[in-house]
Specification:
The structure is a homodimer. Chain A is of the alpha+beta class. In chain A, strands 1, 2, 3, 4, 5, 6, 7 and 9 form an 8-stranded mixed β-sheet that branches. A 7-stranded mixed β-sheet of chain A has the order 8-15-10-14-11-12-13. In chain A, helix 5 crosses helix 6. Chain A starts with 7 loop residues before the first strand and ends with a helix. At the A-B interface, helix 8, helix 9, strand 13 and helix 11 of A face helix 8, helix 9, strand 13 and helix 11 of B.
Amino acid sequence: MEFSVSGFKASGIAAGIKKENTPDLALIFSEYDSVAVGIFTTNKVKAAPVLLTEDHIMDRWARIIIVNSGNANACTGPIGIKDARSTAELIAKELDVRTDEVLVASTGVIGAPLPMDAIARAIPGLVSEMSEGGIAAAAEAIMTTDSFPKISSIDGEAGGQPYRITGISKGAGMIMPNMATMLCFVITDINISGTLLQNALLSSNEVSFNRITVDGDTSTNDMVLVMANGAAGNRNLTTEEYDDFVMALKKVMTDLALMIVRDGEGATKVVYVKVRGAASEEEALKCARTIANSSLVKTAFYGQDPNWGRVMAALGRSGIMIREEDVSIWIDDVQIVGGGLGLGKDLEEKAADKMKNSEFSLIVDLNQGECEDFIVTSDLTHEYVSINADYRT
Amino acid sequence: MEFSVSGFKASGIAAGIKKENTPDLALIFSEYDSVAVGIFTTNKVKAAPVLLTEDHIMDRWARIIIVNSGNANACTGPIGIKDARSTAELIAKELDVRTDEVLVASTGVIGAPLPMDAIARAIPGLVSEMSEGGIAAAAEAIMTTDSFPKISSIDGEAGGQPYRITGISKGAGMIMPNMATMLCFVITDINISGTLLQNALLSSNEVSFNRITVDGDTSTNDMVLVMANGAAGNRNLTTEEYDDFVMALKKVMTDLALMIVRDGEGATKVVYVKVRGAASEEEALKCARTIANSSLVKTAFYGQDPNWGRVMAALGRSGIMIREEDVSIWIDDVQIVGGGLGLGKDLEEKAADKMKNSEFSLIVDLNQGECEDFIVTSDLTHEYVSINADYRT
């Protein structure tokens, strides 16, 4: 029960939404009224479950998260909205909660109607399968192209009361719109207000899911939901306890985000792109993002080639002022560029050795100021092309 | 002599800059004073020849274009600037023109110094090889990963005097910064003012090189130069004659741009992404560009999969307001989406058939207004990854 959280039950079953009779329907149920907050895709084309859940979470209370994989219920028009609402109604009735206490998420193929018959038939079983340790089964049921389930847990203490945070996520390759990819659900038994939980989620998201990229695309279905049911019984959090909680939430969400990059579509490398010496954090992030999203840089990672010319070109089109002659570049601790100039083949060979590892850092110093930021990315591989060229066939 | 232009001579030889003793140094020489205009990379990291040529072309006069392939002379610091200037000085002396009448371009590996000895040794031969038909040899000498030389010509008439426009370009995959990719040089014997030529270049560039994309990266070395030496002897252009000239220049530059997409790195498809029914041309272009640069859309082209969910997701993150329920999508003349909804598997299969062709159109109607624009792109293939992962090794 290392992942179980007091007052929560969960389950994951095969409802027949996917063809292969693999788990495709997940449930998280809080036995108590629970604070709930969320972050949703910025894509203007939002799937039906995103629109419904944005509505249901507005009051910052919820009891249930229900998620299907295999079908994104995106670009499905008014029928999609009706189906998302029906899903909420069905599970609400079965568990005797209000429909607006149900949060719905979907992931899978875009543009096909949800198989509502299959979902309706599966709901009694989904509920009867619920258990305190069921969150692991839920983690499996939300997978699509994922090669492994993603789950992370951490224990904390507030006012002498122990609490736990457990999160699950799905996504292989951030972001893959056709799979309506990135989903993350976090449950905790800490007692916390909706306002504080929202703040904690925003700052945790900044250093986790907002710092990973695989191909720069955003999805129609992305969402991160956090529920806190207060079963730990702690009193109001002190500032220190709140900070501890944020730290713990960051740890869980960063774990889950890194698992997504590691499971990136066809990825063989996880690369930390760090930009320092920037005039502002915003500029540092802009540079890191441009480098991390460059197809040319990412294929060079795959080729284990310290091809810093591509990094310089990415910096040059990142939209910030670059003084070429001030730029230094490292692979881990091997400097390959100083004062904007290459430092020679010997060092490039040493850097190429570092790039043989499955994880390494690309560090850029702009020498313009004191600010820094980072993005975690993967390489662009033959396998990425295979997965995405062949996905629907 | 179908490509030769009155009053211009050209040549292309192997100077030993590339390892394989293939042509790598090109010369274009105007026997008369010539109007010259140019467009240069927007990348903040500009190669030395870009900086020098931007300076030399400011007065809109030139006599010589000298281009080397195999070395970009980018990220080479003060030595790079000195080398670019030395190149100009050497050829200026040999042909008895002023140094500031020489335009220099380079393409190839970033970060290595130009082999000035090899260039200096080659210059007498480069000049002695010059001929009226030499522009074809020049087209070969500017190639890097290109699989074929790119040249296009058109004849026109102004005030009863015939003139010709001939252009050459290089680039396989737009844009590939490490190869410092996209170069285009156009010569014509029309008599035209610098101001008019500049306007003609800007509007031609908009519909040609500014409408192609392979991977969304921009290079440190991109440039388009046009020289017009007036040897045709026409008087001042009438408005109609100027319009005809612009039309002809657009034709040549569009030809050359499409050759670059066709020769795109590992590309198997050329796809016209057309967005219509937009509220403004700017919004149409933004949508077309986001779709055309999406790795997921481009792998779907490769997979011949009419995966319109990825197109919808790209529209959703293009930064413009999208009314999902108003969007229609076609592959050539086969409509696969209407009112934001898929129109069924039968039509998708018909669309997939169209996608087997080496060229097809993806048409998006936003139904928001009367404006439209387009981008020409290629697919993202296994071969793209191979070329870019292995380029320097």
